[in-house]
Amino acid sequence: MSAPTTINIGLCGLGTVGQGVWKHLSANRAELESRLGVKLNLARAAVRDLRKARAVKIPASKLTRDPLAVATDPQIHIVCELMGGTALARKITLAALRRGKIVVSANKALICQHGAEIFAAAQQHGGHFFFEASVAGGIPIIKALREGLVANRFPRIYGILNGTCNYILTQMEDRDAPYAAVLADAKRLGYAEADESLDVDGWDTAHKASVLAWLAHGVWVKPAEMIVEGISRITPADFKNAVTLGYGIKLLAVITRDFKRNELCVRIHPTLLPEGNVIANVSGVFNAISVTGDVVGTTLYSGRGAGQDATASAVISDIADGVALLRFGKGAHLNSEVTTAACKDCRLAPAESIRSRYYLRLTVKDQPGVLARVASVMAKHHVSIASVIQNPAERAGAASLVLTTHESNERAMGATLRQLAALSSTLDEPVLLRIGDFND
Amino acid sequence: MSAPTTINIGLCGLGTVGQGVWKHLSANRAELESRLGVKLNLARAAVRDLRKARAVKIPASKLTRDPLAVATDPQIHIVCELMGGTALARKITLAALRRGKIVVSANKALICQHGAEIFAAAQQHGGHFFFEASVAGGIPIIKALREGLVANRFPRIYGILNGTCNYILTQMEDRDAPYAAVLADAKRLGYAEADESLDVDGWDTAHKASVLAWLAHGVWVKPAEMIVEGISRITPADFKNAVTLGYGIKLLAVITRDFKRNELCVRIHPTLLPEGNVIANVSGVFNAISVTGDVVGTTLYSGRGAGQDATASAVISDIADGVALLRFGKGAHLNSEVTTAACKDCRLAPAESIRSRYYLRLTVKDQPGVLARVASVMAKHHVSIASVIQNPAERAGAASLVLTTHESNERAMGATLRQLAALSSTLDEPVLLRIGDFND
Question: What is the ipTM of this complex?
Answer without folding.
Answer: 0.91
